[in-house]
Every structure is written in structure tokens, then in C-alpha cells.
Amino acid sequence: MSTPHRPCLTLTRATLRLPYAPESARAARLLVRAKLTEWDVPRLIDDAELIVSELVGNAARTGCRAAMMVGIRRASCDAVRLLVSDGSASLPVLIDAGLDAESGRGLFLVGLLTQQRWGVIPWPRGKVVHATLSVSTGI
Asked: Which of 12, 79, 81, 92 has its CA 20 to 30 A from that of 111?
């Protein structure tokens, strides 16, 4: 017995306002897991949780005091976009972390998991960092 095919839910989104704290990554992961389960794309959960954890962690380290916004949106039937906005004008930088480095590989992983479909949109009061995962290929 096969399960009925559910049409993709385009232009569906969810957002969450979070404090600038490392613990906020857990709440962001829960949001991502819930929406991807609802949208019937569970194979993206692990990658999406890693990506949103990295983006939230980077935002938490900016030193901003206002709340950050975390979002997930089903941009199309083939794409899920993760977004993290913060109040810092400082742009994330992809660095070449050495073999002995204890950090600095997060954006490299984001790029790898999204096939380099990530970026930054500067705003007058901060920025939005976004990353897009392909639904059809799972990468």
C-alpha cells in the first residue's frame, strides 16, 4: 500500500525570534525539524539542522543585543531556504581553516551542503544570511 503523494507547499514559511545566545541553536533546530517533517522532506533534516546551528552560532557571536530572527521557507517545490538575520553589519567570511584549527569550518560546511547556494543580504540595521537546500537531490 503506497502513501498518497502530498503536493509541495510553496511559499510556506515559519519564523522564530531568538535571543543572541548559543542555546538558541537548539530552538532553531527544533523549528527546522518540525517544518521539514510537516513538508515531508525528512531527508533534509540533518543537513538543515547543521546549517541553521552554524548560522545561529555565528549570529550569537556578533555581540548584538537585540533578538535575531530565524526562518525557514519552502521557496519552491525544489528548494528549502534557511535564513538567520542579526543586527550586525559585520559580514561572515569563509576562511581556510588549517588542519589544527579548532573552529572556522562552519561556512565551508554550509557551502558544501548547499552546493555554494548561500549568501548574505546586507540591511541598514544588520544582515540576513541565507542557505538553500535542494529538495529533489537532498543536497
From this structure: 12
C-alpha cell at 52: 541553521
Give start and end residues of each alpha helix (H) in the chain: 24-38, 45-60, 106-114
Mean pLDDT, rounded, for 88-114: 74
**Is residue 109 within 8 Å of residue 50, measured between CB atoms?**
yes
Closest CA to 81 of 25, 128, 38, 124: 128
Q: What share of the chain is helix, strand, coil (3-state, %, to 5)?
A: 30, 30, 40
* Strand partners for 73: 13, 81
Taking the C-alpha atoms of residue 25 and residue 18, their distance in angstroms, rounded to an integer, is 9
Query: What grid cell was written down for 63?
Result: 555581540
Contacts of 35 (CB under 8 A, 6+ apart): 12, 14, 72, 74
Task: Give the predicted TM-score (pTM) of the model.
Answer: 0.85
Strand partners, 14: 72
